Amino acid sequence: MTRLWRSFIAGDEDAFSEIYEAFFKILYRYGYHFAADHSLVKDAIQELFTDLWRLRSNLSDTTSVKFYLFRSLRRRLHTLAGGEDVYQALPLSENDLRGLQTDSREQYLIDKETEEIHLKQLGEGINKLTTRQREALRLKYYEGFTLSEAASIMNMNEQSVRNLIQRAIISLRSLLS
Amino acid sequence: MYSVEELVWNDSFINWVRYNKNSDFWESLRASDPAVEENIRKAALIVKAAAATPEIPVEESEAAEVWNRIRRDTAEPETGNRKWHWAVASVAAAFLVFLGIYNYGKTDTRVSYENLISEVASSDYKEIRNDGPDPVSVSLPDRSSVVLYQGSKIGYSLSGYNREKREVYFSGEGFFEVSKNPQKPFFVYSNELITKVLGTSFTIKAPENSEKIEVIVKSGKVEVITRKDPRKKKVLESKELEEGNYLVENQKIDLERATMKLSPIVKRELTELNHAVQQMKFDFDEEPVTRIIADLELAYNVRISYDKVKWQGTKLTAHLSDEPLYDKIEMICKAIEAEYEVRPDKIVIK
């Protein structure tokens, strides 16, 4: 990705297109939580990449591309929503949870039925978390950002994000006793 | 010692749960102690749940749609530095049909695009339009290709095309490259004009509501008749062009729609070919592959993505002329031992 990013900054259109292809869906899925509006998310992504191309010469070649794109997209969506904090944290469905079950490789170690019950409880617990907690969990555990990246994307300080996640984990942990 | 609270913050642990990385370490730790195993089990459940996200479907077409908008917004004005490529005189086979734009009153002999396609059931009719300012390359089922210019449309019967012949209905301006297949002659119906070729490349200009149709042959053989021609049936049935009655390289003919009269065949003027692909010479001697691909991108207004570093310095001799776009790509891929893939917004060479 670093090589691609450097080619892109140097003006390589193919690199630009590859970055777009690599990130469109990831950004779309994240952005959709803010608006639940397809055209709004698409507009935001369009603007994001248009500006990215235009302003490429000002970009740093050491940036984490994904981090940069997420932060820009969130800022854009924030502006489009009139400065509201609008992450909506769409509820998890049974299907979303079913996909999390341990695959057969580890099955011998885990009681499948217990796992299913626990995941269901955790799913309900997650749906009860605040939207900020949900977003912080998503950024750290699903998208794989570091705490400081997650904080920067959410425009908060690192300690606040740590607290959000900590409290979420405590409440989830309590469901497993 | 590996409490649930510690584990859920541990990046190595998260990577194991999410992506099965570092599994030797975590598997052996799990096996070491039942208390640790229980903590690992709970922490893994929490990490999985924390990573859970609702499924939000995204269509490939949405990615392509947004990409087109980005491309439009980021298009940079054409600079002069590549123009010399198409200043080269051409020997490639091609012909042009122009439909001039002088509006007269309509008469009974007039045939519109809509009249033509009314013969085909709409559920069976595949139409491709280009309403944008940039040329669009279209591939037909037999791999013949058409570069559609602004305001043009082409269509064909899904069930009938390429069975006994290849018939397309056309309006606007387009550059056709027809794959050679004398067994299945290729016909273009544009207003009152029927253009027949066995395999060559040519451009048609047939804007709606225009008064004159011109056919300009760049090279190859092209037969042109009107729909009123008494020989029409024979021309449509036969698999040959009628001897002595076709246009060849650099000739042109035109039809005045009001009188339904075809002009004599005359030599075309160089200035009558005004798009890159109509004039380009795809004849390469020891040219860098990167140059050849750049020429194709320019000629067909397509994007071709490939590893520039890998092919840097590779040279190729290729005598291409009037093959359809994908045949050209395939010939190049064979020569450099690569493969290609067609995506919605570009062609990828691997």
Can you offer a commentary on this structure?
The complex is a heterodimer of chains A (177) and B (350). By secondary structure, chain A is mainly α. Helix content of chain A is 69%, strand content 0%. In chain A, helix 4 (65-80) runs parallel beside helix 8. Chain A is elongated and about 55 Å long. By secondary structure, chain B is an alpha+beta fold. Chain B folds into three domains: 4-50, no CATH class; 90-275, Sandwich (Jelly Rolls), CATH 2.60.120; 282-349, Phage tail protein beta-alpha-beta fold, CATH 3.55.50. Chain B has helices at 4-7, 11-19, 23-32, 34-50, 60-74, 84-87, 113-117, 232-237, 276-279, 289-300, 308-311, 325-335, and strands at residues 95-100, 125-130, 136-139, 145-148, 152-157, 166-177, 186-190, 193-197, 201-206, 212-217, 223-226, 251-256, 261-262, 266-267, 283-288, 304-305, 315-319, 340-342, 347-349. In chain B, the strands form three sheets. In chain B, strands 1, 2, 3, 4, 5, 6, 7, 8, 9, 10, 11, 12, 13 and 14 form a 14-stranded mixed β-sheet that branches. A three-stranded mixed β-sheet of chain B has the order 16-19-18. In chain B, strands 15-17 form a two-stranded antiparallel ribbon. In chain B, helix 3 packs across helix 4. Chain B is elongated. Chain B starts with a helix and ends with a strand. Chain A binds chain B through residues 12-14, 17-18, 20-21, 24-25, 28-29, 32, 38, 42, 45-46, 49-50, 53-54, 90-93, 95-97, 99-100, 102, 109-110, 115, 118-119, 122-123, 125-126, 137-138, 140-142, 144, 168-169, 172-173, 176, and chain B through 4-5, 8, 14, 18, 30, 37, 41-42, 44-56, 58, 62-63, 65-67, 69-70, 73-74, 303, 305-306, 308, 345-346.
